[in-house]
Amino acid sequence: MLRSLVGSEMCIRDRDDAPAMACTFSPNDGLTGCAITDVEIEPVPLASIVGSVVCFPSWALSFFCLEPKEEAAVLHCGKLTSMEKQPGCHCRSPCGILVNKISTKQRVDDLPTQKVADGNGNPVMVSAVLNYRVSDSKRALMNVQNVHTFVSTNAQATLKQTVGRYSYDQLKSVAETVNEEMRTTLQSLVQCAGIEVNSIRLNDLSYAPEVAASMLKIQQARALIQARELIVEGAVRISQDAVLRLEESDAVQLDAATKAKIVTNILTVTCGESNAVPTVSLQT
Predict the structure, then answer these.
(1) For residue 191, what is the DSSP state?
(2) CA-CA distance, 62 to 72, in Å (whole number)?
């Protein structure tokens, strides 16, 4: 295995004549993964031309058709000789021909639900919906073995890594930020396969069954505390307003003990969970 470092690129080869796998670290290309060297289009080999002339009847098998939003890579004797992008019928030298087709239509991939530890270490069940399309058919056909498997596998890895950096509450509150981060990360990984990622969005998010009951109690406790704080804040404001209005009306004279009693009664009635029962003091 040979390793060479030139400028901002490191190329790894198993042997001298093998194609290089270039890991580019330049900030201008937007890639964070390995960028496979693109396959160049070459002329049709002479052997294919001669074989097609000799075997003239084989021309009947040289026709192929493309549908709208479908492209094809034409190979002769293992060499890429042309890329066909126009719909309709096409004819190429038949000897040693191989036609690989791929659709450029928009695709939707439902990433399966998987268990991931969030930023706090709590296991959560998460899934996502991925929208993408093939933007460079030559890269999609020649740079990876199965482009859709390649995209799906990288999307699942991106989902795990991104979710692991946020807590459950953050995933709920800043979902759009998380979605954009996942899209940007995935785009850099699948760029070498000629894929354009339109969106990847969290679809289902919940705690794992083994911790769901405990986390539900925590959420209920937080909600109860927030509700109590709101009730107490309102009760204090009501008590202050009641005492202030009684003093301003000059209808009654209030001493400190009376004010404290009024405030206590109002707080008791407002903050209590059960209905208030009025009590009248009878004095002789």
Answers:
(1) G
(2) 14
What's the token pair of residue 124?
């959560």
Q: Provide the phi-psi class of 194: left if phi over 0, else alpha when psi is between -120 and 50, else beta.
A: left
Beta bridge partners of 196: 133
- The model's pLDDT over 84-97, given as tens digits with 9 standing for 90+, comes to 999 988 888 888 78
How many CB atoms are closer than 10 A to CB 68? 10
Tokens linked to 102: 């791929």
The tens digit of pLDDT for each residue in 207-251 reads 888 876 777 777 788 888 888 888 888 888 888 888 888 777 776
Quote the CA–CA distance of 243 and 234 in Å, as a whole number.
15
Q: How far apart are CA 207 and CA 116, in angstroms?
A: 10
Amino acid type, 128: A
DSSP state of 192: G
- Helix count and strand count (H, E) for the chain: 7, 12
Helix axes 209-249, 256-271, angle to 10 degrees: 150
State the CB neighbour count (10 A cutoff) for residue 242.
15
From residue 264, give the alpha-carbon distance in Å to each of 147, 224, 236, 252, 260: 72, 22, 10, 18, 6
The C-alpha atoms of residue 41 and residue 81 are separated, in whole angstroms, by 5
Query: pTM, whole model, 2 decimals?
Result: 0.66
